[in-house]
Amino acid sequence: MQVIFNRIWGLVKKELLQLSRDKLLLAFVLVAPLLELTLMGGLTGGGVQNLPLAVVDLDRSRASRELITRLDQTDELLIKTYEDSVAQAQEQMQSGQIGVIVVAPPGYGEALTDPQQPAEVQVIADGSNHVVSSAAIGTVENVAAEIVQNLTARYGVASGGPVEMRFAARFNATLDGQPGAITMMLGLIVYQVTLIIAAQSFTRERELGTMEQLRVTPLGRLELIAGKAIPTLLVGLVDCLLMTGVAVAWFDIPVRGSLLLLMLLTVPFILTQIGWGTLISLVSRTQQQAMLFVFALAMLEIACSGFLVPASSLPETMRLLSHISSVQHYMVILRGVMLRGAGIGVLWQSALALSGIALGVATLAWLRLWLGLDTDSLKQRIQIWRHIYRRNRRRRRQVGSGTRRRPRLGAQKPRPAYVDVRVEER
Amino acid sequence: MSILRFTSVLVKEYRHILREPRTLWMVFLSPAFVLIALSMIFTSGNGRINLALWDEDRTPLSRQFAATLSGDDDFSVSYASDYKEIETLLVKRDIDAALIIPPGFADTIQNDDTAPVQVILDGVDTLVAGQATGSLLGHAADFGVTLSRQLSLSTLPLKVHSQSAYLPDAAERESMIPGLIPIVFSLPVMAAALALARERETGSLESLIATPVRGLEYLGGKLIAYVTAALVGLLPVWLTTTLLFHVPFRGNLLLLLLLATDFLLASVGMALFIGNLVRSQQTATVVALFIFFVPGFFLTGMIDPIDTTDLLGAAFSYALPSTHFVSICRAIFLKGATLSEMYRPALALLILSIIWMGLGTLTFKKRMR
């Protein structure tokens, strides 16, 4: 046992030494995650904000000016230009300078105060981005509702309808997008760092020719894997811890649950990435290929993770896929522990799923490793199996042609001729 | 600059790409494959919102209101009976929102007053929270209309006619796909960064130093090889978007090719710059992913539009070639924009390509370290 530990420790030391020697890599593995989180966390998560708006005020009344002021006061919209005609505004939309047009038609102000006929406002949103157009239309509708409420209050009519919804958001009272976006980024950055380091571990050795040296050392295959995995795991955990620190200290994002639980569940998440990475590094011949595999896999995981589209809105096939996506389960855990204050009693399903995925991927990687460390091991193995199968079939045919009974493989070898010599005694 | 030497580098790079089926697949077809995977997630409909209902009023009127919610396809309704239960359900993510009808709901309405209804949202996923808010507000309004025909205002005093230009409202998938095209081209671009780092790592750059090939010819060969390879990959991407996902293509294909070349020159120039700075391919990958992967989603205006009032953020966004190509792709596919209408992003790409290619050339040293 002691010997095995020593051997693994030797490899771990070598990997860490290699990492510390490349200063740029070290910086990008340890410092860049923090920088990126700080920078991007500050920039994103606000949703649609200050969308350039073009106003076409054909009415030029007090009421229309009030509408425009109210539109400008929203967080989502920001008046960019005033145009005289819809066509001019549409030209600007065509060139992408504005995202939404609001038109106050002539007679708007009069119609608003006239109880007999309704006033109208026209909104044209840039449909080439669904997120933008739906947010813009929603904002204008909210503004219109406000105006109606003020009006009805002025006329002494009970405001709005008979039912009023009072919204309260738990875990994130202001419905700020930042906590969600930052936890997502945190998960993705841990994901990318660990996956790349793992994915290039063997490919790098192979490409540089040091793989052959590793293979003549007494390290067994599993020891080799363990030695490669431990540094990656360490880096991943350190990154995760540091970034959680930044999220708490810089962005005031709470960790309502137990940090220990979070770190504990980060382990199977990172192990899954190490498993995927090992698999990738065993099947790619160059690091370029490994990187491309990593990127394609990462895109698939992102697609399923509920980041772009809530997991409940995914179509059926993608939802099935999302069950085996480690990122999706990790996001549930990460947000659960940090924002919702969930404990293991709540998260056990995701934890179990994550461990299951880690185990499954590790098994796959182990199976692949069992075939051999070369890129073409699988191909060679298949060729060998095919060869054995064909040889056996050939033999079966030769033997089976005379007898009806199917002979057991190997048992019915054609007898050498010298056994068959019969001596007749006279 | 000698054409012969340039071509020989080009041919060598092509051989690197072509000789290995895996690399070939990755450079030419993976953008289309990744695009399909990403596009699959956008559907026209929203998912169901899991709603817990707690009716404290228990009157026919409150039940009628609850029935309108459970009858709707937007919600899958479950029932709860106290705050603690709701809290537990929220923590367990079993529900996205809870609706509480307080006692006296029916009485208040019958007195022609406005009855408050409490909604508790899960604020973590703001996308779902927004969806739930919109849906519930709509229900409250509908309920008002069905209930009170006798309400003093016969018609609403203000109507909003909304219209989304270029595409009807429901076409979420069609509107999102053109914006995804730039990020899938990160694949061939990153391959270029690694191609440069590999020469240094495996030591074949040292053999190149001994040849008469000059730095500019060498870099030019790499650049052109990967740009053209990616342009070939644009064809399957274009076919996927138009034929598989039926995204309208209203612009000019030649214009798209021209601007895509511009975009790829800028991106590959950036990749070569990265490739010059690093010593190993592993570092190149980590650096390239940090620049192309997470910012590619968050900073390019692919989902949320860029907030131009935030100067720092806008500066970072506009330094990425993808940002401009996102708006170009949307404009060409969906708006049928011409070059004169897109001169801003096109010009920005041109400037970026000069800057990044220039930086790539300046930092390259044909020397041993």
Question: In short, what is this structure?
Answer:
The complex is a heterodimer of chains A (426) and B (369). Chain A has 426 residues and is α/β, with parallel strands linked by helices.
Question: Could you characterize what this model shows?
Answer:
- The complex is a heterodimer of chains A (426) and B (369).
- Chain A has a four-stranded mixed beta sheet, sandwiched between helices.
- Chain A has helices at residues 2-21, 23-30, 32-43, 62-73, 86-94, 108-113, 130-154, 178-199, 201-208, 211-216, 221-251, 259-283, 287-304, 316-322, 326-340, 344-371, 377-400; strands at 51-57, 77-83, 100-104, 119-126, 163-170.
- By secondary structure, chain A is of the alpha/beta class.
- Chain A folds into two domains: 2-41 and 176-377, no CATH class; 51-149, abc type-2 transporter like fold (3-Layer(aba) Sandwich), CATH 3.40.1710.10.
- Chain A is elongated, with a radius of gyration of 33 Å.
- In chain B, helix 12 packs parallel to helix 17.
- Chain B has helices at residues 3-18, 21-28, 30-39, 60-70, 83-91, 105-110, 126-147, 172-184, 186-202, 204-209, 215-244, 253-277, 281-292, 294-298, 311-319, 321-335, 343-363, and strands spanning 49-55, 75-79, 97-101, 115-122, 158-165.
- In chain B, helix 4 links the parallel strand 1 (49-55) and strand 2 (75-79).
- The model of chain B is unreliable at 149-155 (pLDDT under 50).
- Chain B has 369 residues and is α/β, with parallel strands linked by helices.
- At the A-B interface, helix 2, helix 3, helix 5, strand 4 and helix 7 of A face helix 2, helix 3, helix 5, strand 4 and helix 7 of B.
- Strand 5 of chain A pairs parallel with strand 4 (115-122) of chain B.
